[in-house]
Design brief:
The radius of gyration is 19 Å and the shape is globular. Strand 13 and strand 14 form a beta hairpin. The protein has a domain of 192 residues: Purple Acid Phosphatase, chain A, domain 2 (4-Layer Sandwich), CATH 3.60.21. The protein is built from ten helices and 15 strands.
Length: 301
């Protein structure tokens, strides 16, 4: 059985406490459970003060087969920031701008560049998703067509240079599948519509509920974990990209990514978001799965 753990974001002390709370003990610096295995949904690094310690803890668990882990968008960003050509240049200018998001993590590895490179290589060997029969794990979004495309093009789920180059440069179906899986689906607003957040910053897109068909919904109903209010009127069908709802009879999907500080983690019988906004004074959340086909609130920790 599995204990699925949400976005840690460099909060190693909180992770240790959570692991102890659900029955894991440390031996020689490696946490393990006699009967269960942890699964990390990605976003181990950045924002918090202990990204290096977090990486060490999770890697030790994974390498000793006490845990599984997938990549989040923050790990993907770290990989792309470290992905340089023979001239020492980034694949494109947008990857060089990731320095700001990675600053807290990179400062922890100042003077430890060789160690950081070893973590980058390790992260490139982690999968983008896990399909474990009765449960599925993705960082932000599970769409069958995206997962199938990734399975075809990432048979061993290792991020090789050729794949990173292809996905980093092209706006292809494969690139869309890759980014939607780790970053979700942003609903693009029409050019003549701007939404302003509480700080007065304009936005042309918002994070959407990828598991529903947007047809007939209002902007507000479709938004998920938006940090700004959206209008409560029906989305014009002319700007809708139709989507398939995630079927209630399909396996449970556990994911993170969306900062749900004031919301309940269980969205439906088979959808659970485990990001409880630990990076913004929220909580670190786990779901202790016992083999059930419908999620149970009492299994949240």
């Amino acid at each position: 059985m599995y204990d699925i753990i949400g976005d840690v974001h460099g909060q190693a002390d909180m992770l240790k406490e959570l692991l102890r709370q659900i029955g894991y003990t440390a031996k020689n610096g490696v946490y393990s459970h006699p009967e269960r295995k942890a699964i990390f949904v990605g976003d181990f690094i950045n924002r918090g003060p202990q990204s290096r310690m977090t990486l060490n803890l999770i890697r030790n668990m994974v390498d000793n087969e006490h845990a599984l882990a997938i990549l989040g968008n923050h790990e993907i960003n770290a990989i792309y920031y470290s992905f340089l050509d023979k001239k020492g240049m980034h694949l494109s200018k947008k990857w060089s701008r990731l320095r700001l998001d990675l600053d807290s993590t990179l400062r922890e590895f100042s003077g430890r560049e060789t160690e950081w490179e070893s973590y980058i290589k390790w992260m490139r060997r982690l999968p983008m998703f896990l399909d474990l029969d009765k449960i599925r794990i993705a960082h932000a979004c599970w769409r069958d067509e995206n997962i199938n495309l990734l399975k075809e093009n990432l048979p061993k789920q290792k991020l090789k240079r050729s794949f990173l180059t292809l996905v980093g440069k092209n706006n292809s179906d494969l690139a869309n599948a890759f980014w939607e899986t780790c970053k979700g689906i942003d609903f693009q607003l029409p050019k003549d519509l701007l939404v302003f957040d509480s700080k007065g910053q304009p936005h042309r897109s918002f994070r959407s509920k990828w598991w529903v068909d947007p047809s007939g919904l209002t902007f507000k109903d479709l938004s998920f974990e938006s940090r700004f209010d959206l209008p409560s009127y029906t989305i014009p069908r002319e700007i809708i990209v139709p989507g398939k709802p995630y079927p209630l009879g399909d396996p449970i999907v556990f994911f993170g990514h969306y900062c749900m500080k004031n919301s309940f983690n269980i969205i439906s019988d088979n959808l659970c978001c485990l990001d409880s906004c630990v990076s913004r004074k929220g909580r670190l959340t786990a779901y202790c799965w016992q083999g059930e086909e419908k999620l149970k609130p009492e299994n949240l920790v």
